[in-house]
Amino acid sequence: MRKGVIRPGHIQLRVMDMEEALKHYRDLIGLIEVNRDEQGRVYLKGWTEIDKYSVILVQSDTPGLDFIGFKVTNDKVLSTLENDLKTHGCEVTEIPAGDLDACGRRISFVAPSGHTFELYAEKEQTGKWGIAEINPDPWPLNLSGMKAERFDHCLLMGPNVPATQALFSDVLGFDLSEQVVTPDNTVAAAFMSCSMKAHDIAFVECPEPGKLHHVSFLLETWQDLLKAADLLTMTETKKDVGPTRHGLTSGQTVYFFDPSGNRNEVFCGGDYHYPDHPPVTWKAEDLGKAIFYHELVIHPTYLEVLT
Description:
It comes from Paraglaciecola agarilytica NO2. The chain is an alpha/beta fold. Helices cover 18% and strands 35% of the residues.
């Protein structure tokens, strides 16, 4: 049952060289830089996104994920979910408004997988970049690189996937849209949606907690995806896999790495999910087909390289 979580709102990524990271996320992927703050954080957005930003880059000695924020419908819902998280046994930290640029108060908690999440209700809305609010054009001029439309989802790896799935289902109201199950019927991967998308967040079982597998950005068409793959070669960007198709979610995809080693995905297409849809199930013994539908095998780097 949906409980007022709208969508993934932002992600904070650690990068080891900010200027190289900006060449990657801004100039290659095509996100728009919107601000920098006194702490050195850089804020970016996809051109279709209404909120002021969705990606936050922070310089660090190590790559990886700091947190992912989900936006909720209003402050009353935020307070209700805060109480529900505490009742569920989560330790909740309150973060005051203004800690992030143009963002209201946030509540932070750690999932059983070891990942840090936060919820918030308010963020300044600046509208689609370069698009008028009245009589809008279909897309703006002067987009860069891959022309990413939005920050779409993340796949995270860590332990306790069933407990993490329960937290997101029972407390936050996400649906289980797709799953990978082992022969003993244990859920090894949970793809979860708070919208009509195939997934807004995904968890895959891994002994090491708090790991980022990839952060994903939406492109419009298969042709855009092929051009993105061309750009990876043209810019000598380290590619992982693709272009190809997933079995899970049916989306088309290319995986590659930022200069710090964080895996990125650009994708298009894919399935949709309504709350009354039963979860799609894949068998763990057929994982190659589930992940890479054309190749039928898992590339060695795909499950081994994490940040």
